[in-house]
């Protein structure tokens, strides 16, 4: 086990009706003037936003709102939120939604706490985040895990560059998780979420490091639970037990727990960000479209690791490591398909891409040669190109 530091400070308030306590939580964390951030309208339609606003009014909290966050959230709206927040004298940012809303809220919080610094500089690593405002979350979709993660992902709408920022200042103060709030999700979004939750653990599980018994067991248990309940939730979005398991797994999968003591891979995430950046593809769907190609390209690096995954997660008894690995990859890809997720570029709806596009995706992914990606197998420019080509 490698040395690690684990810090997961977000307070989790889980269960039916918990959103009614949102105002109290904001007060506990010092909030009095709040910016509520939300997405394209699902929370307006469901009445959730009105309930939250009512609870804030009842608790004597002043607030203003910013709606319109799109999936693959745009930098320009976060900048607008910073401006709005500064003008209103905001001291707390409340995200009501999913990963896109939460990441926008994180960006806004950094911007309000650092007036005069353009927030994209944090994402470009030109300026370090050293202070931010507190952020709270009312979660409406089990997927990105941003509600407890140290990460935030934004897209610069001028260059269509999608970038993640990791900092402890990205950890929300609290998250309210009522699984019933996910009942209105379209099946496609539930499936995207299932893939993303699995990928946050798979991108940690496939590591060159061994000797992490408890971390591996936690990861495998989480994957089994998500696979089982993902099927149920896509079939029946209002199954409370399945929705509950997915919601809790979504947070545990990305708060760091399932990869402690080992190097993280995250190559599939890096590959997928270029697809979302260029084609505005849904995050979970672009992961599903790429993972099989990544796995088939890299498994020979350490087939034993895939064989362990085969046995523990899929119950595959084959003794031959390579055969077990291939079977597990096929099963995982077939599972994504069974949820209605794409497993190639054409299924993702972006068609078969030209050589020029593949080269461009590759260049962007490796920052024009300035970086490699992945740890399970370190991928250079030509590896990245081959994986995109396989998925094409
Ligand atoms: O915008 P509205 O109308 O709310 O609709 C949203 C959106 O269209 C809809 N939705 C959410 N909750 C709903 C609902 N529709 C009906 N009922 C509900 N209860 O779902 C759509 C997708 O929302 P989004 O917030 O984009 O989903 P998700 O949570 O999957 O977030 C994806 C974003 O998070 C980033 C992704 O790259 C992507 O930009 N990620 C953030 C991470 C982090 N900060 O730690 C890690 C992840 O790996 C990921 O990269
Ligand atoms: Zn993800």
TrEMBL record:
<dbReference type="GO" id="GO:1990002">
    <property type="term" value="F:methylglyoxal reductase (NADPH) (acetol producing) activity"/>
</dbReference>
<protein>
    <submittedName>
        <fullName>Uncharacterized protein</fullName>
    </submittedName>
</protein>
<dbReference type="InterPro" id="IPR001670">
    <property type="entry name" value="ADH_Fe/GldA"/>
</dbReference>
<dbReference type="GO" id="GO:0046872">
    <property type="term" value="F:metal ion binding"/>
</dbReference>
<keyword id="KW-0560">Oxidoreductase</keyword>
<dbReference type="InterPro" id="IPR044731">
    <property type="entry name" value="BDH-like"/>
</dbReference>
<feature type="domain" description="Alcohol dehydrogenase iron-type/glycerol dehydrogenase GldA">
    <location>
        <begin position="9"/>
        <end position="179"/>
    </location>
</feature>
<dbReference type="Pfam" id="PF25137">
    <property type="entry name" value="ADH_Fe_C"/>
</dbReference>
<dbReference type="Pfam" id="PF00465">
    <property type="entry name" value="Fe-ADH"/>
</dbReference>
<dbReference type="InterPro" id="IPR056798">
    <property type="entry name" value="ADH_Fe_C"/>
</dbReference>
<dbReference type="GO" id="GO:0008106">
    <property type="term" value="F:alcohol dehydrogenase (NADP+) activity"/>
</dbReference>
<dbReference type="GO" id="GO:1990362">
    <property type="term" value="F:butanol dehydrogenase (NAD+) activity"/>
</dbReference>
<feature type="domain" description="Fe-containing alcohol dehydrogenase-like C-terminal">
    <location>
        <begin position="191"/>
        <end position="390"/>
    </location>
</feature>
<dbReference type="GO" id="GO:0005829">
    <property type="term" value="C:cytosol"/>
</dbReference>
């Amino acid at each position: 086990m490698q040395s690690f530091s684990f810090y997961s400070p977000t307070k989790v308030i889980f269960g039916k009706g918990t959103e009614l306590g949102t105002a109290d939580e904001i007060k506990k964390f010092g909030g009095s003037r709040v910016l509520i951030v939300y997405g394209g309208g699902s929370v307006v339609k469901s009445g959730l936003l009105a309930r939250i606003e009512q609870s804030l009014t009842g608790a004597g909290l002043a607030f203003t709102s910013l709606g319109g966050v799109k999936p693959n959230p745009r930098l320009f709206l976060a900048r607008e939120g910073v401006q709005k927040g500064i003008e209103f004298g905001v001291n707390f940012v409340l995200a009501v939604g999913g990963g896109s809303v939460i990441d926008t809220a994180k960006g806004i919080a950094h911007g309000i706490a650092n007036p005069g610094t353009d927030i994209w500089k944090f994402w470009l690593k030109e300026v370090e985040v050293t202070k931010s405002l507190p952020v709270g979350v009312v979660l409406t979709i089990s997927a990105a895990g941003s509600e407890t993660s140290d990460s935030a992902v934004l897209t610069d709408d001028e260059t269509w560059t999608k970038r993640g920022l990791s900092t402890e200042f990205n950890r929300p103060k609290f998250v309210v998780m009522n699984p019933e709030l996910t009942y209105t999700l379209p099946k496609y979004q539930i499936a995207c979420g299932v893939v993303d939750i699995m990928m946050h653990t798979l991108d940690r599980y496939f590591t060159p490091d061994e000797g992490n018994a408890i971390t591996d067991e936690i990861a495998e248990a989480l994957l089994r639970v998500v696979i089982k309940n993902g099927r149920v939730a896509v079939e029946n979005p209002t199954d409370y037990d399945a929705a509950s398991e997915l919601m809790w797994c979504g947070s545990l999968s990305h708060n760091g727990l399932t990869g402690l003591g080992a190097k993280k891979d995250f190559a599939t995430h890096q590959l997928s960000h270029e697809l979302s950046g260029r084609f505005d593809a849904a995050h979970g769907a672009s992961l599903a479209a790429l993972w099989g190609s990544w796995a088939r390209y890299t498994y020979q690096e350490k087939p034993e690791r895939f064989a362990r995954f085969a046995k523990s997660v899929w119950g595959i008894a084959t003794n031959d490591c390579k055969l077990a690995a291939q079977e597990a990859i096929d099963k995982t890809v077939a599972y994504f398909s069974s949820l209605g997720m794409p497993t190639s570029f054409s299924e993702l709806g972006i068609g078969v891409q030209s050589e020029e596009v593949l080269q461009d995706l590759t260049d962007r992914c490796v920052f024009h040669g300035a970086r490699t990606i992945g740890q399970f197998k370190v991928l250079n420019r030509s590896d990245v190109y081959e994986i995109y080509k396989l998925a094409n």
